[in-house]
Each structure stands twice: as C-alpha cells, then as structure tokens.
Amino acid sequence: MSQNQTALIIGAHSDMARAIANQLASEGYNLQLAARNAQARLARSATDLILRHQGEVNCLELDVAATDSHADFIEQLTPLPDVVVCVAGVMPDQQSAEQDYALAKLMIDTNYAGVVSLFEGLAPRMASRGTGCLVGISSVAGDRGRQKNYIYGSTKAALTTYLSGLRNRLASKGVHVITVKPGFVNTAMTEGMDLPEKLTAEASEVALDISKAIQKQRNIIYSKPIWRLVMLVIKHIPEFIFKKLDI
Ligand SMILES: NC(=O)c1ccc[n+]([C@@H]2O[C@H](COP(=O)([O-])OP(=O)(O)OC[C@H]3O[C@@H](n4cnc5c(N)ncnc54)[C@H](OP(=O)(O)O)[C@@H]3O)[C@@H](O)[C@H]2O)c1
Description:
Layout: E1 6-10, H1 15-26, E2 30-35, H2 38-53, E3 57-61, H3 70-75, E4 83-86, H4 94-99, H5 101-129, E5 132-137, H6 150-170, E6 175-182, E7 184-186, E8 200-202, H7 203-216, E9 220-223, H8 226-235, H9 239-242
Parallel strand pairs: 1-2, 1-4, 2-3, 4-5, 5-6, 6-9, 7-8
Helix pairs in contact: 1-2, 1-7, 5-6
The structure holds NADP nicotinamide-adenine-dinucleotide phosphate (NAP).
C-alpha cells in the first residue's frame, strides 16, 4: 500500500488515465488529477474515486501544450507528488497531418514538448527532495517510423529518447523514470480501428503494468509485454526491405 503518497495524473480525462487513477487509488495513493476543463469534467470521477477508495482527490486545470502555464502549475502542487504519470497525447490522422502542419505541430507540442516542459519543471524539485517517480507514456510507434503513422511515431520516439536521458540524469538523485510503451489499447484514441485482439490491451491492463513498474522500479515496459518481441522483429527488418512495406 502507498498510504500518504500522492500521484499526479496528467491528461486525467482519458480512459487510460481513469484506469491508472483507479489502480493507484486502490493502492492508497491520494490523487491530483490534471486535465483541460478539469473542474467540469473530472468532478464525477473524483467523487467516484473518493467513495470507492477513501483517499484525497484534487482536480487541477492543465493544458499540456500551453507550456507558458507550466511553471505556475508546478508551483501550486501541494504536496509535490511522489509519482507523476503523464498520459496526455494526441494522434490525429497521419494523412491529415501530412497536409496540415498545424496537426503535426499539435502532436509535437502535446506528445513531446509539453511533457519535456512539465518533467523539466518537476525533476529538480523531486531531485532536491531525493525521491520521486516520473512515468511517461510513449508508444511502440516510436520504435520505428512507418508510413502510416510516422509523425505521431516520431513524437513518441523523441519522448522515449528524452525519458532515457532523464532517467540517466536522475538515477543518482533518488528519482526514477519509467518509459511505458503500449501497443494497441482499447481507448477513445483507437475507437473504430480494427485491432488484433491478441495484441490489444484494455486500459486496466496498462494501468496494472504501470503500477507494477512503479513498485519494481522498472525502466522500460511494453504493454502488452508481447510487444517487446514484436518490435524487436520490426526493428531488425533491413531498411531496403522495410521501405517497400506498406505498413
Ligand atoms: N490507445 C492506444 O492504442 C495507445 C497506444 C500507444 C500509446 N498511447 C498513448 O497513451 C496515452 C493515452 O492515450 P489514450 O489511448 O487514452 O487516448 P485518449 O483517450 O485520446 O486520451 C488522450 C488524453 O490526452 C488528453 N490531452 C490531449 N491534449 C491535451 C492537452 N493539451 N492538455 C491536457 N490533456 C490533453 C486528452 O484530453 P481531452 O479530453 O481534454 O482532449 C485525453 O484525455 C497517449 O499518450 C497515447 O499517445 C495510446
């Protein structure tokens, strides 16, 4: 149990975030739930979490892409959380993003730049305290660029590299950094997609994997774990073959 520990969940309105909130609250964490239009949209989830798990739940306003607001957001966090999970992300359609740079930029700003801004603000505070855990949700899409989603994938590749460096920087300061690489997950983001059942996780499975990773101080996890093998194979396809594949 993690009594008296606090977890901040960023992008708290999503299916995955709700599952993570439920999992961590069931383990005794108090929660800080951050999202856009937080008070209006999170009040019901917060009440439900309090009734079910009896911990404290606070709803905080945050736009991950609005980096100018991040210093004030971090300053008001009371207490400084023990665990931070950044779930926020966007994945507009690849072809639309090829034609409209604003969509590509939205992915860069939300999936990468916004997370860097938040984690860079949180890292020195956790390091001076000497404890903390930062969890970034990357994606298997960042392991190799494919024509069908390489703009989204490249923002996740950048995030994966960022988290690797941050983990290296903070390892001696008592702060742990976890990279989560989900494959397919049944959420609003993948609604309407024809996903292979055996390779598709439910949000609750990802939440459980994240909880175990926090407890065991894992560095990089794939969810479902089979994706580690799938991506190992995909990463090793020679480029002269890979560039001819329609994937
Ligand atoms: N689903 C998958 O198959 C899959 C696979 C690999 C990785 N992932 C990653 O997993 C994470 C969660 O995805 P999901 O599947 O749960 O997607 P989702 O249901 O679309 O949720 C994404 C969440 O991000 C929030 N968000 C987007 N832009 C934001 C911003 N500027 N500020 C604050 N919050 C913002 C959204 O908030 P609003 O409600 O305010 O829009 C939404 O709650 C994402 O990082 C995604 O890239 C998902």
